[in-house]
């Protein structure tokens, strides 16, 4: 079975601590080569397992701490003046 890192994001607990969560997809090819749907798993960057409860909600397996996924923020766009100054 192979696991491939397909994403990472930050999540917060109720006390505001931030956790770095890694998303993996695992798949086991079938003998006939048709494959199987990949299974998505989550782990903290330090290796602790994480279960997905619902969209955007997760729970640390060992400590039972509930986490909420942080919304992704797009990179700030530079204004024309900032671009000229940087040049």
TrEMBL record:
Tell me the domain of life.
Bacteria
> What is the protein's species of origin?
Pseudomonas hefeiensis
The name on file for this protein is Uncharacterized protein
Which segments show compositional bias classed as Low complexity? 75-87
Region annotated Disordered sits at 68-87
């Amino acid at each position: 079975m192979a696991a491939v890192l397909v994403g990472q994001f930050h999540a917060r607990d109720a006390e505001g601590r931030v956790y770095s969560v890694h998303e993996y997809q695992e798949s086991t090819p079938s003998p006939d080569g048709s494959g199987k749907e990949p299974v998505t798993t989550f782990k903290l960057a330090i290796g602790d397992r994480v279960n997905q409860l619902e969209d955007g909600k997760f729970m640390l397996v060992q400590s039972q701490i509930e986490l909420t996924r942080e919304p992704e923020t797009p990179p700030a766009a530079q204004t024309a003046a900032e671009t000229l100054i940087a040049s």
